[in-house]
Automatic annotation (TrEMBL):
Location of the Fe2OG dioxygenase domain: 56-155
Superkingdom field: Eukaryota
Family, as annotated: Belongs to the iron/ascorbate-dependent oxidoreductase family.
Pfam families named among the record's database cross-references: 2OG-FeII_Oxy
PROSITE patterns assigned: FE2OG_OXY
Keyword terms, alphabetized: Iron, Metal-binding, Oxidoreductase
Organism field: Linum tenue
PANTHER family (UniProt xref): 2-OXOGLUTARATE (2OG) AND FE(II)-DEPENDENT OXYGENASE SUPERFAMILY PROTEIN-RELATED
Protein name (database record): Fe2OG dioxygenase domain-containing protein
InterPro entries per UniProt: IPNS-like_FE2OG_OXY, IPNS-like_sf, Iron_ascorbate_oxido_reductase, Oxoglu/Fe-dep_dioxygenase_dom
Amino acid sequence: MKETSKEFFDQPMDEKKVVCQEYAGEMEKLAFKLMEIICLSLGLPGGRLKGYFEEQTSFLRINHYPPCPFSDLTLGCGRHKDFDFLTVLAQDDVGGLEVKRNGKWVPVKPDPTALIINVGDICQVWSNERYKSAEHRAVVNGEKERYSIALFLVPSHHVMVKPLEELVSEKDPPKYLPYNWGKFYATRNRSDYKKQNVDNIQIHDFRVPN
């Protein structure tokens, strides 16, 4: 898959439109299995969330970070939290992924034989914050190019995302107002292309005030 990634980025734009379908299918199977496990960990039936993905909008993203001699001044991907349910990430042996822990950016040691699983914002909302999405970013390497491949598991456009009724109670009320996934995604995509200092929509915009 990593060799395919390099071949992919070396191709003309017209030839980049269709690639890696078999890989995406296998990663999707893994993502759905992990979703079942998360449901069970919350005391829910394994298939509790399956209905939200009947017309799923999941997608695969192949990232290429060229080397940059001014790596301390160049950011490959700015700090963010994944807006999906969960992300299955494969990366090569070139470091670059960092997660925020106790207010500091901590490098994730690269392991090309392992997959990284990121819990996304939708999982945070559905679980009423029993699971929380992690803030992360990607920095470039000064000498080596870096590749990563991410499968984002996201529900159907029409789905209303809100804390699951089984996980809320009088003692633990909903922490988020409902939002439509399709509208959220469209708004987020539009704001991603605005100026760097313009905040894009986040799930905390729907958080119920304490």
